[in-house]
Amino acid sequence: MRLFRFLLPLLIPLVAMLPACAPGRDLAPLPPADVADYRLGPGDAVRIITFGEESLTGEFRVSDSGSIALPLVGPVRASGSTPAALESRVAAAMKRANLLRNPSVAVEVILYRPIYVLGEVNKPGQYPYQPGMTVVTAAAVAGGFTYRAVDAYASVVRSSGGEAVEGKASRHASVQPGDVITVFERRF
Labelling 158: which of 5, 15, 60, 72 has CA 20 to 30 A away? Predict the structure, then answer.
């Protein structure tokens, strides 16, 4: 008991320092994503509906070069566009090709780019994105946190405007398609 009383004042400062050693603690916060302005990117799949024109309606994948190939129209730039902006681009391309005078086009995202979950989860890997995902739901899809995981926050790498940005995100932060989430290992 005497040894415990002697060691206790020495251990308290060490225990207080443990959170300061936490991995990822020094990362800047991840800027919030604007989910209303989703930007298409390579790997996304869209359904384009041209009202009254079944031959110009279909499902298309955004290529690595950032475009979609429309029948009778050719390639249309999609990467970086919102679905609403792509509607305008497709309608303009149809007018330029003299296919329709006043096309009515709707664009719907049917498949988003996948997310990647790494680190201290039971099944790290690539997973399909679902609208409304958070860091904790992404970890749940990846089999849940391991017993060694820091479950209060994670690192998220997000491509924004052609640049990758890394930041610290809380477990309730929104995830975007294409995000790479790393769950840190807890240091005891």
Answer: 60
